[in-house]
Design brief:
By secondary structure, the protein is of the alpha/beta class. The protein folds into 2 domains: 3-214, c-terminal autoproteolytic domain of nucleoporin nup98; 288-482, Rossmann fold (3-Layer(aba) Sandwich). The protein has 17 helices and 14 strands. It has helices spanning 3-12, 33-37, 76-82, 105-114, 116-120, 127-130, 148-156, 193-208, 218-226, 237-244, 249-261, 288-302, 317-323, 338-348, 355-358, 392-406, 441-455, and strands spanning 21-25, 45-49, 52-61, 66-74, 133-144, 162-169, 179-192, 307-311, 330-335, 361-365, 380-384, 410-416, 457-464, 475-482. It has a 7-stranded antiparallel beta sheet with strand order 2-3-4-1-5-7-6, sandwiched between helices. Strand 3 (52-61) and strand 4 (66-74) form a beta hairpin.
């Protein structure tokens, strides 16, 4: 490490001005971390924020180990002046506080901005690596943690992290004073970098349980965007959502309802706590994700599939239904997220299955834009609410992998109907912040027809959910079946 960087690291890793966040990896070559973060290891970079300055630098950068450090220098005067009139924290508390020394929502905001491309999971030069879980170590030296070290374990351990949360004493010279509300947090695990950054973006302010800026309705979108692939299946999803949204009951109910609509397993969390006075609907509607599962399950039986793979299976809610259906003699699930696969294994109770039962179930990590022999050999493949999460330039690769290389006898695809969105109260834009696009019925029909013609399938288009005479159904369904004479 050059003298300039050594001096900077020494000064900023010292006692008076601690680094607020470090991310390290031993993946080799470890300096690939620079590609994933889109920050060059040989440079010190500064980024101006409305509340201070963020500095990103690398205290160490070798092929064996690489560490990126994010330092946030908070300007309390600039922060106070940038606060909205209805923002929290008034008078002297705006200037005398711990924000210059401890991780908080400010760090989450800064990290989200500085590492925005990394959080999206995009890396043109190392995309396969960006899609993969790698060994990571994350250290936050001073983190406000309301609820103590136990709450840090409850939030991070279910995500696959080994958690060390060491309470910081009020004063090392006076042990009898006990611990402060701060912990030194160290996380280690094999996790996709984009997932790790998004988890931190959400959980740092959750642990602090304090937002230093005004929260509007767009906070729900921010939460869902960062929570893709892990929040819905987290055992503390309700606690996380309520804390992140400042315990604002209206926003919390909206967020939990949207998670349930997307198919994540938090339906029970949509019910408000007992102390909230909220009118209940006279008749509980069947959630759209349940209607999707029922419709796709019925189609698989209709086409006579015996072996089925769920592509982008997530935490395994639909897989559970497949495994419980005796007609399916072989069931597989693939997903790019190893954490989702761990949740799926837990849901299916793979460790408790008999040897005979376990032989018919397979889970594995795979990216649908790269050919993988394990995707082939199935009667039917399911792409349920998956294609809209793929960047349009990479959609052709998915088509080639699924319909060409894997080539199952049938492919069942579901995706939102963009025309129906106007019927959702309060929805602006697409239904989920991670959606790269949403098709109209005409666009979906054009795509389906082109794919069917290219790869030798015929296609049947249907709808799922409450039908509107003008706008159609909320979910579009395409059933691709291989034409006779096109079997490999």
């Amino acid at each position: 490490m050059c003298r300039t960087f050594a001096s900077l690291a020494h000064r900023r890793l010292g006692q008076t001005e601690p680094v607020l966040l470090t991310v390290s990896t031993t993946h080799q070559p470890a300096t690939d971390l620079g590609y994933l973060l889109h920050k060059h290891p040989d440079r010190v970079q500064e980024f101006r924020q409305s509340f201070g300055t963020v500095t990103v630098f690398y205290p160490e950068a070798t092929t064996e180990r690489c560490t990126a450090a994010l330092m946030l220098d908070v300007d309390p005067v600039r922060l106070a002046r940038s606060q909205a009139r209805n923002a929290p924290d008034f008078s002297l508390a705006q200037y005398v506080n711990d924000r210059s020394y401890a991780a908080s929502s400010l760090l989450g905001v800064a990290m989200a901005d500085v590492f925005s491309t990394a959080r999206s999971g995009r890396c043109a030069s190392r995309q396969e690596l960006a899609d993969s879980a790698i060994p990571l170590e994350i250290v936050v030296p001073t983190l406000p943690c309301r609820g103590g070290a136990d709450i840090a374990h409850r939030l991070f351990a279910p995500l696959g992290w080994a958690v060390e949360a060491e309470p910081v004493p009020l004063d090392e010279a006076f042990a009898e004073w006990g611990a402060s509300r701060y912990v030194r947090l160290r996380l280690t695990g094999v996790v996709r970098l984009a997932d790790a950054l998004n988890q931190l973006h959400v959980l740092l302010p959750v642990l602090d349980e304090s937002k230093h800026y005004w929260q509007g309705p767009d906070e729900v979108d921010k939460l869902l965007r960062s929570g893709v692939g892990w929040l819905g299946s987290h055992p503390e999803a309700t606690l996380i959502t309520r804390r992140y949204l400042g315990r604002r009951s209206g926003l919390t109910r909206t967020a939990l309802a949207r998670l349930a609509e997307l198919g994540d397993e938090v339906e029970e969390a949509v019910e408000p706590p007992e102390d909230e006075d909220v009118s209940q609907p006279e008749e509980k509607r069947v959630p759209l994700n349940i209607q999707r599962h029922e419709a796709v399950h019925q189609v698989l039986l209709e086409v006579g599939a015996r072996t089925v793979i769920d592509l982008g299976c997530g935490p395994g809610q639909f897989l559970d239904r497949l495994v419980k259906t005796p007609a399916f003699t072989r069931v597989a699930g693939s997903d790019v997220s190893t954490r989702s696969l761990q949740y799926a294994a837990r849901r299916l109770r793979l460790d408790r299955m008999s040897e005979r039962q376990a032989e018919r179930v397979e889970l594995f990590q795979s990216a649908l834009t790269y050919e993988d022999d394990r995707l082939a050999g199935f009667d039917a493949a399911v792409l349920m609410e998956v294609v809209e999460h793929v960047d349009p330039p990479r959609l052709e690769a998915l088509e080639r992998v699924v319909f060409g290389a894997a080539g199952p006898g049938a492919v069942i695809v579901t995706t939102p109907n963009a025309e129906y969105n106007v019927l959702y109260e309060g929805l602006a834009g697409m239904r989920h912040p991670d959606h790269r696009f949403e098709w109209t019925r005409e666009e979906f029909a054009e795509w389906s027809g082109r794919v069917a013609g290219t790869y030798g399938y015929q296609v049947d288009l249907r709808g799922i959910g409450d039908l509107d005479e003008t706008l159609g159904a909320p979910t579009q369904l395409a059933i691709f079946t291989r034409k006779e004479g096109n079997d490999d």
